[in-house]
Write a structure and sequence with these properties.
RNA binding; rRNA pseudouridine synthase activity; Alpha-Beta Plaits; four-stranded antiparallel beta sheet; nine-stranded mixed beta sheet; 19% helix; 3 domains; isomerase
Length: 238
């Protein structure tokens, strides 16, 4: 949450009083003077002090989930099961939502949190969040394929994609496997990129997102972030 919202919840004082404390460098995050009242903080992960007094608030939760095909990346849906439905009642919190989206037929890594501003910051173009997908297609990926994707694919409507890093794992006339890394998130982008090359995606799974790795997490399962992953998450709080 934003620092000013955190202090509001902690009933530190009026907005005018909080601004005065901020200007006097009396608001500190992990011992350092706060840089902005709009910076993203989590009182469960960081020590927040105001005039030497530690703020005690329940922080946000962060889950890494392996979305199965058929489940939608949404908070609610009248027709389909959502990623939030996969969170147990014991682990559920008010305000949970998925950071970013995967198509309904796409599997893989989705971050779930109730930290409202985090998703916006992670998906903001300034962070250049890399996404890695494992892909299977119904045709050959030739020696020219990595260069084709690295050059920036152009769709039929003129939309041009940023360069993507393709690694071919296996190639044959009727079935090929690869991984692709990209920083964009256009609608159906990965599928359209392979169509532009001349093959159709038959299976798609996101295996990495913003430095977080899916690993061997089972379909439909989720887990809390590890201490190292939480430390990495701090890079999006700046």
């Amino acid at each position: 949450m934003r620092l000013d919202k955190c202090l509001e919840k902690a009933k530190v004082g009026s907005r005018k009083q909080v601004k005065k404390l901020f200007k006097a460098q009396q608001i500190k995050i992990n011992g350092q003077a706060a840089q902005s009242l709009s910076q993203i903080v989590d009182p469960e992960l960081q020590e927040i002090q105001v005039a030497g007094r530690k703020i005690e608030l329940k922080g946000s939760v962060y889950y890494l989930l392996n979305k199965p095909a058929g489940v939608v990346s949404a908070v609610t849906d009248q027709e389909h099961q959502t990623v939030i439905d996969l969170i147990s009642s014991q682990d559920s919190r008010e305000g949970l939502y998925p950071v970013g989206r995967l198509d309904r037929d796409t599997e893989g890594l989705v971050l779930i949190t109730n930290n409202g501003p985090l998703g916006y910051r992670m998906l903001h173009p300034s962070h250049h969040v890399d996404k890695v997908y494992y892909v299977e297609v119904n045709g050959p990926l030739g020696p020219d394929a990595p260069t084709f994707f690295a050059s920036g694919v152009t769709f039929l409507d003129g939309t041009r994609c940023q360069p993507a890093d393709l690694t071919v794992l296996e190639a044959s006339l009727d079935h090929s496997r690869a991984t692709i890394k990209l920083a964009e998130g256009k609608f159906h982008q990965v599928k359209k990129m392979f169509l532009a090359y001349g093959v159709k995606v038959t299976y798609l799974k996101r295996i990495s997102f913003g430095g977080f790795e899916l690993g061997d997490l089972e379909r439909g399962a989720y887990r809390q972030l590890t201490p190292n992953e939480m430390e990495h998450l701090f890079t999006y709080f700046d």
